[in-house]
Amino acid sequence: MNTPSRVTAPFLERMIALEVIGHVPADLYLDPENPRLASELFSVDDQEDILRWLWRNKSVNELVDSILANGFWDHEELFATEEGGRWVVVEGNRRLAAVKILLDPGLRERLGIHLTEKPSQKVLESIQELPVIHSTREDLWSFVGFKHVNGPQAWDSIAKAEYVFRVRRNFGLSLADIASGIGDRHETVARLYRGYVVLQQAQDEFEFDTTDTQHKRFPFSHLWTALGYVSIRNYLGVDPTALERENPVPRDRLRRLRHLMEWLFGSQSGNIEARVRRQNPDLRNLARALEVQRGVNLLESGSSLSVALDASLGDAHLFRTALTKAETSAREAMRFVSTGYAGEEGLLETANSLLRQAESLNALMRSDDS
By three-state DSSP, how is residue 90 classified? Predict the structure, then answer.
């Protein structure tokens, strides 16, 4: 378990001293800037739309079931900030959504939500008023970041990245300060930020769509992990310093950025197959293929990753590998000849063909031409 950093700890000390104020749920607003919403565009007036999205995408039903069984836990305070005369919940949006659903049968009907059981009177009494701590977004950022980026209740990686991006943009903090504030000792903040600014540039420049990939869920980690490879950064014309700015990829490399996004994610509408299906080993192989121009050319022309990788490895490496595999397979066949061969003519002909190829290969390797 991570421990609070030197920035987070003072906030926790201040939080203990802050007054917990009871709020009627109807007076609390879901946060349109909630990083869980990822790239969805909502305003504070879109409360029902935000709730619908959270219900469909962020397992609010689990919290509904928990409250139905146990009531609302008073020690799980919500954190809210006053914006435009409204109390907007910065931390605790899923809990607030669950409470609103339980309290409002009309809302459930409009959203097509069916509860496993009706809330008891005891449950309803526990959610008539919610414990809220008033604060500001600026005071809250390190606490929220520690909890959801580097702590026990982690968001998915794209939500983490968007949170880091907003903290840096809104409060003018360096990535090092943000990492220190949430107790990140593994450069996670920097890697998330680098992936996010590249994703944003792809969305702005050629309308890259995270819902149009060949993966069931958008695997954002493919992108920020890919940018850790020198060959991939070189292909895009960026370095770690450039990746800490918005729009880091030079304009003359945007075509290459489009290629990279297609290799990483594919496109359903464009019928483009993703070259990277799994990070291991596909991402590593992509980086190796991009180390030489021949591999680059083959990938850009539409060849498979395996073909491009073979080209990048070179004929000497491929020959050595193939010869070693052939010897290993022959030795393996020798182990089972006494128990696995029963005089089949086809297998004997295969062995004869193997013998002829081995003799031809040996002769070629001994010849001056080779």
Answer: strand
β-bridge pairing 20-23 and 130-134: antiparallel
Taking only the tens place, the pLDDT of each residue in 293-330 is 999 999 999 999 999 988 776 666 566 666 777 778 88
Q: Are 227 and 241 in contact (CB under 8 A)?
A: no
First-to-final CA distance of the chain: 60
Q: What is the DSSP string of 44-88?
A: TT-HHHHHHHHHHHS-HHHHHHHHHHH---TTS-EEEEEETTEEE
User: What is the distance between the alpha carbons of residues 25 and 47, in angstroms, rounded to a whole number?
Assistant: 13
CB 49 within 8 A of CB 57: no
Name which of 50-64, 150-164, 190-204, 342-356 the model is least confident about: 150-164
d(C-alpha 151, C-alpha 184), whole Å: 9
- The structure tokens listed for 269 are 């509408």
DSSP 19-47: PEEEE-GGGEEE-TT-GGGTT----TT-H
* Cα Rg, the chain, nearest whole Å: 29
Scanning the chain, the segments in alpha helix (DSSP H) are: 8-17, 47-57, 60-70, 93-103, 105-111, 121-126, 137-148, 157-171, 175-182, 188-206, 220-226, 230-236, 254-265, 284-289, 293-300, 305-313, 315-340, 345-366
pLDDT (tens digit per residue) in 257-279: 999 999 999 999 999 999 999 88
Residue 20 phi, psi (nearest 5): -90, 125
Contact predicate 33/81, CB 8 Å: no
Model pLDDT for residues 54-103, shown as the tens digit of each residue: 999 888 999 999 999 888 887 778 989 999 999 999 988 999 999 999 99
The verdict on whether omega for the bond into residue 131 sits within 30 degrees of 0, i.e. cis, is no
Enclosing H/E stretch for 132: strand 130-134
Report the distance separating Cα 41 and Cα 210, nearest Å.
14
